[in-house]
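Repro:
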Amino acid sequence: MALDIHQFPCLSDNYGYLIRDGDTGVVASIDTPDAEAILAELHRLGWRLDLILNTHWHPDHAGGNQRLKDETDCTIIGPEEARRIGPVDQLVKGGQEVRLGATRLRVLDAPGHTLGHIVYVDDEGGNAFVGDVIFAMGCGRLFEGTAPQMWGSLSSLAALPDETRIWCAHEYTLSNARFALSVDDSPALRDRAAEVERLRAEGRPTVPTTIGLEKATNPFLRAPLLRPGLEPAEAFAQLRAEKDAFRG
């Protein structure tokens, strides 16, 4: 059976994700941005939390680990860096696999935003839980890693099938679209930006997105096309610096 994915807003602009294996009913929380909200959603759904799957150590991703561990006795799985903020029962890194009941989640190393950031990919179901590596029409800031590292991480995600759904952790799409339009005037981007404006005006989420849609409209994946003559990682670095300074 397919993976059940329950998405809900929390904090100021985060999304929480509870995922449930359809065959076994095993449930995981992708990161723990808001323990109170996660517990409320579990209660509303009638689900029991079995696993936490951390992508990286930042407080809006792992800050609820201890509370949820105390409340549910779940198992916390994540990268070594997540121990900077709380307990981790099982360490994972790229090349390994996490089992959520009958669902296999492939772990990818994705440094750049942080050095130990990882991504969980449900190849069979066509889902990728990407934390803060890539956003709809954007990508994470380089808090710890380098531009070549982040470009490599984005390139790994871009190699996934175009139909893969990207479940990113923040609703940043409206501001990302404004920057994208300042560096790219493709018809596909203009159409998407208009759709994003409509969705947000209606209070609707712009997440998930897909790999194919991001390849067509995300300026960071399109960096070599938008900055011709530069090496890909250099083109990405230039766009990332422009985004950091953008006030539009």
